[in-house]
Design a protein that fits this description.
By secondary structure, the chain is mainly beta. 10% of the residues lie in helices and 49% in strands. The chain is globular and about 65 Å long.
Length: 439
């Protein structure tokens, strides 16, 4: 084989360096200024468009605070937020109008009837948000402290703007494939969901920190909806509402889609509602999911499958009977659970459609909290084949509400399961709630 000359090898090396550099699109080259004051929306979008047109690469934010109104990721683009950078949401509520000409969703059928968000992707493939920097939702401009206490007496803030102007989510990916979200911190969310992954395939979410204020309404962490082959790992989430949610509300899609083959592992969760929740009103099919090696602490409820009355959520409901099946939850530790470590309920409302909740396997779960699990099916939808294997629940209050209640159930198996009823007085329950509100 003919040997390459030193000059040829040097040229190839320099070409490789050039290509690598060319794959990075620094937003400052497009006019962005990281002073925390200037809106850089046009410059950041220009960098994204150029990166997409060039066949893909990284759009880089570094060394500054980059304020922006909504931006849209496109196929092949990795939005890289360096550890020295912060992507700051615009404080101007008028910047958050609905996206126009959206391909993948029926906007009026989305929760809150809006597709507005800070970072949007619509049928884009091979997209990413990476880096050790921060997405700052600038939520201080969206809510204010309230004299009233609501939602389990934990929320102490309320939204400033009417529903038609509210920002319902920060990051929204719809109809995307091969998605990576890695190592980014999200903070100061504007009373809305952190991430909504909607009808996406092959999604990796790893190493995220989501630091919400638990006193702010609806500051959820990660919503996985109608999506498949999703892996969530190594995340630390503090949420003002549910921390991780698995749902299948297809009403905004052209056809019904399940949520399936989702794994969640090595996460630390804290929530003013559920740490982990499955389902909602008429949510469709959620199946074949594994959740393991999770620590839940200082949380109102631990793990829930909740199908409430349709009257509770006037804009957030699906069009199918809910099925939750073949779910494995293992190696989970819960401490300081304010109410129920496991809360499963199907509302009596006939408009709440439920077909089956079955084949749910809890193993190696150890819980300390105010109550035992609460599981309540319905005559037309009994809970089927629940297995508790090597699970212990230590109840630390004498409050009798929520004693070990299992009703409308069938096919329960208890193997090496203990219910340790170490009792203290009711002051312990109140202390836990006050402790949570004081965070």
């Amino acid at each position: 084989m003919k040997k390459r000359s030193l000059t040829t090898l040097l040229f190839i090396s320099l070409l490789s360096v050039f290509i690598a550099q060319a794959a990075d699109f620094d937003v400052r080259r497009y006019g962005a200024k990281g002073d925390g004051k200037k809106k850089n929306t046009v410059a950041i979008q220009k960098a994204i468009d150029a990166c997409h047109k060039a066949g893909g690469g990284r759009v880089v934010l570094a060394d500054g605070i980059y304020m922006t109104a909504p931006i849209q990721l496109k196929t092949g683009v990795n939005l890289y937020i360096d550890s020295t950078a912060r992507l700051l949401a615009s404080p101007d509520i008028d910047d958050y109008a609905n996206w126009k000409n959206v391909k993948h969703v029926i906007t009026e059928n989305l929760p809150r009837k809006k597709n507005a968000c800070l970072i949007f992707a619509d049928e884009a493939d091979n997209i990413a948000i990476t880096g050790s920097g921060t997405i700052d939702g600038n939520g201080i401009y969206h809510f204010s402290r309230s004299d009233k206490r609501w939602f389990n007496d934990i929320w102490t803030y309320e939204r400033i703007f009417p529903e038609e102007k509210q920002l319902p989510r920060v990051v929204f990916f719809a109809g995307c494939k091969d998605v990576v979200i890695e190592d980014v911190t999200m903070t100061n969310q504007p009373a809305g969901w952190g991430y909504l992954i909607h009808d996406c395939d092959r999604v990796t979410i790893r190493g995220l920190k989501i630091m919400s204020d638990i006193h702010v309404p609806n500051n959820d962490g990660i919503h996985i909806n109608c999506s498949r082959d999703v892996n969530i790992s190594d995340c630390n989430i503090v949420a003002g509402d549910d921390a991780i949610i698995l749902r299948a509300n297809s009403r905004s899609l052209k056809e019904n889609k399940p949520t399936e083959r989702v794994t969640v592992s090595n996460c630390v969760l804290q929530s003013a509602a559920h740490a982990i929740r499955f389902g909602w009103v008429n949510d469709g099919v959620i199946r074949n999911c594994q959740l393991s090696d999770i620590v839940i602490t200082k949380t109102f409820r631990g793990i829930g499958i909740e199908l409430p009355s349709s009257s509770l959520t006037p804009t957030d409901y699906g069009r199918e009977a809910t099925v939750v099946e073949d779910i494995s939850l293992s190696n989970i530790t819960m401490t300081d659970i304010i109410t129920y470590p496991i809360y499963i309920i199907i509302n009596a409302d006939p408009k709440t459609k439920a077909e089956a909740i079955r084949n749910i396997h809890f193993s190696n779960m150890h819980v300390t909290g105010a109550h035992f699990p609460y599981l309540h099916g319905r005559e037309d939808c009994v809970l089927q084949n629940f297995v508790f294997d090597n699970c212990s629940f230590t109840r630390e209050t004498t409050n009798k509400v929520g004693d070990n209640i299992f009703s409308n159930t069938d096919g329960f198996v208890f193997n090496a399961t203990t219910f340790n009823t170490r009792s203290v007085n009711r002051k312990e329950y109140v202390r836990r709630l006050q402790k949570m509100k004081g965070l």
